Known about the structure:
The complex is a heterodimer. Chain A is mainly β. Chain A is 4% helix and 53% strand. Chain A is built from 1 helix and 12 strands. In chain A, the strands form 3 sheets. In chain A, strands 4, 5, 6, 7, 8, 9 and 10 form a 7-stranded mixed β-sheet that branches. The radius of gyration of chain A is 16 Å and the shape is globular. By secondary structure, chain B is α+β, with helices and mostly antiparallel strands. Helix content of chain B is 23%, strand content 26%. Chain B contains 2 helices and 4 strands, in the order E-H-E-E-H-E. The A-B interface holds A 1-4, 6-11, 14-15, 21-23, 28-29, 31, 36-42, 44, 46, 48-49, 55, 57-58, 60-61, 76-77, 94, 109-113, 115 and B 1-5, 7-9, 12-13, 19, 22, 24, 36-37, 40-41, 44, 49-65.
Amino acid sequence: MNFDYRKFPVDLNNCPFPNKKSSLRPVISISLNSKKGNFGYFVLIDSGADYCIFHGFIGDELGIDVKSGKPLTFYGTSGEPQKAYFHKITFKVGGIDHTCMVGFSYEMENLAYGILGQDGFFSDWTVKFEYYKENVELKKIN
Amino acid sequence: MKIQTVDLSKTLKNYKNEWLALNPDSLKVVATGNKPKNVLEDARNKGILSPVLTKAPANYGTYIL
């Protein structure tokens, strides 16, 4: 399956490249199923992340008691600790069911999307980044 | 299978610090608010049965994750 990279806004007051209008990122929409129906959620395919981390609200919407999960303290580049709680969930990637452990965090309000990381996503999918084509190719293993 | 998308930088640049529900086909904003639960509900009330949820941060800035 091929997915287009998506263009996100840049802060023109904090950008070293004057002609840059947007940032290209391998962000895709996954589909989640709650009691109230399906909804989509943007996630960044992030080879630098150890785990899959979603906003805490997503867990709430799925009916999960988020804080009952196994806790993890994780760190971004700022070094500030953040907390996530892990649960096994299923979501669809391009229409294909995928089940994995996801950490839900209420401390990622400055991020527009969730993160698909090494354990739980790259462990189960072949990922081919093609920035020059603005394309990411995903293929489920097995 | 190639999934066509739109330039989200144009769609999202006018929103800050709130949750957004997007039409899954056009990716245009259909509902906004501080509580994601309400945003999803608003979108469904407008006939968008499977809205796409995203958070508009205070500043999109630059990410090194």
